[in-house]
Design goal:
Length: 217
């Protein structure tokens, strides 16, 4: 049994808001862990009166509490990445990524370089958009820290991205009724759909701004 399988087994036996937040903090840091095995099963269990996640008796409210717990956890993990990047600097971060321990965490200098290039191309908003991209999601906080992005803006974009992503996972958990094969199958497709929708919204407002400027001229 792999480490992830062992953690999932422990999580299934100790599922609560605290364990949701803890595992989402791990998922959002540089330690590789799939968020798909955290939020969706919790949403499925929330309807069980014997569960620790059955708090208000209102299923929608209880699911919202799960999403908020996961979002808080994700922000904690992201802040750890940000602070370590600011404190240690690029040289040490890249050395760690290329070390044996870094490779055990599925890190590499190439992956960090990819995340930095994405951050430079998208700017601060990448800490929001990057939450929907596999391989970038866990690392986007590192280039934000290396570039010393304004901490308030970092927290805001991270909260928005983590909240929306956790809502997607919650929807998957509800629709798939906890079936992990379906959740893993469609989580990527949904994240792509969200990115396309965000892109369409951005293009729409950009076009409106250009047309409005031309009318004023």
């Amino acid at each position: 049994m792999s480490i992830i399988d062992q953690v999932v087994a422990w999580y299934s036996a100790h599922i609560s808001h605290a364990s949701v937040a803890a595992l989402m903090a791990v998922e959002s840091s540089f330690i590789p862990f799939p968020s798909e095995v955290v939020i969706p099963p919790a949403v499925y269990v929330a309807g069980n009166p014997d569960s620790a996640l059955y708090v208000t008796g209102n299923y929608v409210a209880d699911v919202l509490l799960i999403v908020l717990s996961g979002t808080i956890g994700a922000m904690i993990g992201a802040v750890v990445n940000y602070v370590l990047s600011v404190w240690l600097g690029r040289l040490i971060i890249y050395r760690f990524a290329d070390s044996r321990l870094g490779h055990l965490c599925l890190l590499s200098g190439d992956k960090l370089q990819k995340a930095e290039e994405y951050f430079r191309s998208k700017g601060n908003v990448s800490t929001f958009v990057g939450r929907f991209i596999p391989g970038i999601r866990q690392l986007i906080s590192i280039p934000a820290g290396l570039s010393r992005m304004h901490f308030g803006a970092f927290l805001w974009y991270t909260f928005l991205g983590a909240f929306v992503w956790n809502c997607i996972l919650a929807l998957l958990g509800y629709v798939a009724h906890g079936q992990m094969d379906l959740i893993e199958k469609y989580s990527h497709e949904l994240s792509v759909a969200i990115l396309l929708l965000l892109g369409a919204v951005i293009i729409y407002f950009a076009v409106r701004k250009v047309l409005s400027a031309r009318k004023r001229q």
